[in-house]
Amino acid sequence: MKVIIDDKIPYIRGAFEGVADVIYLPGSKTTPEIARDADAIVTRTRTICNEKLLAGSSVKFIATATIGFDHIDTDYCEANGIRWTNAPGCNSKSVEQYIASTIMVLAEKNGWNLSEKTIGVVGVGNVGSKVARICETFGMKVLRNDPPRERAEGSGQFVSIQQVMEEADIITLHVPLNMKGEDATFHLGNESFLSALKKKPVLINSCRGEVIETNAVKSALKSGQLSGFVCDCWENEPDIDLELLALTDIATPHIAGYSKDGKATGTLMSVQAISDFFGLGLNEWSPSGVELPLNPVFEIDCVGLTEQEILSKAILHTYDIRNDDRDFRSNVALFEQLRGDYPIRREFPAFTINAKNIAEKTLDKFKEIGFKI
Prior knowledge:
The chain is of the alpha/beta class. The chain has three domains: 2-86 and 259-278, 3-Layer(aba) Sandwich (Rossmann fold), CATH 3.40.50; 92-251, Rossmann fold; 297-321 and 335-369, no CATH class. It is built from 15 helices and 13 strands. It has helices spanning 32-35, 51-54, 74-79, 92-110, 126-137, 147-153, 161-167, 191-195, 214-223, 242-247, 260-278, 307-318, 321-330, 335-340, 360-369, and strands at residues 2-6, 21-25, 40-43, 61-64, 83-85, 118-122, 141-145, 170-173, 202-205, 228-231, 250-251, 297-301, 352-356. A six-stranded parallel β-sheet has the order 7-6-8-9-10-11, with helices on both faces. Strands 2-1-3-4-5 form a five-stranded parallel β-sheet. Strand 4, helix 3 and strand 5 (83-85) form a beta-alpha-beta unit. The radius of gyration is 21 Å and the shape is globular. The chain starts with a strand and ends with a helix.
């Protein structure tokens, strides 16, 4: 069999050695001619898997090593007997880390006591559920909004979007991109939504660019209806709106889920999916060579620090989002290169804290977050 693999997928080289012929290509270089006699494609979001690419091919299975799958024409695939899979939740802890760093930076900048803040988490799936949990660890009041889950599970832990709009100091979006239907999320952050916000919150978008309407967000920031905006996912990326960029508090080039751990997990899920489908016997395979962080063991002396300051020090040691913001603003035209050459980022469980003079309840919070002690 023949497998086409996007050569930017990390840790995958050698996975199919001895069981398949492999072609490694940049995602944008996968053409109908190359795909014609392939059995499977392993891709990222930059390979558009639609009729143009797949018509007349022998492709039977597409695995994308990403949570998102809007680059796959699923209707065409299903109508033509092509199975597909994504990697749900593979980078959920990476996005959790991204949001945690964001919140700590904003708290420092604005002098927030997080125990006095309410955050609305819109979309409480693999990612949103972890974001909600860590925000509760910070002492924040969390409003969970997820209409599909609420219909399936009941209203016990969920609130309406209207309550989020009325009560939240921060709103963070973690929804899929749905273009139609009762759970449509395309331009969820539009003029109607933004004009109804009661507390002039900070809005964070780290899910899909098209979930927000660019001009409406710009107007809300200029009028003060939004007190801030953090953006990782942009409409029309990599051709982003430079005026919106200038208005954002924190801007990054679609890297919220770019931890090495998340990438390794996405690769593992894709390889195992193809192995299961074709019976290749690779279920014991796992990625190797995942890089270690620069300083995986670090010390915090907690004397004179509040619990929030202690947690902030630890989180920003693992990942300080201000570095990505600075690099992006300096090299906006290099959107894709910044993603392709993204530096090593490891998630909380890759770090060990030597904590001195720490209260037991704060130590417990470190453990809840995932640190080793």
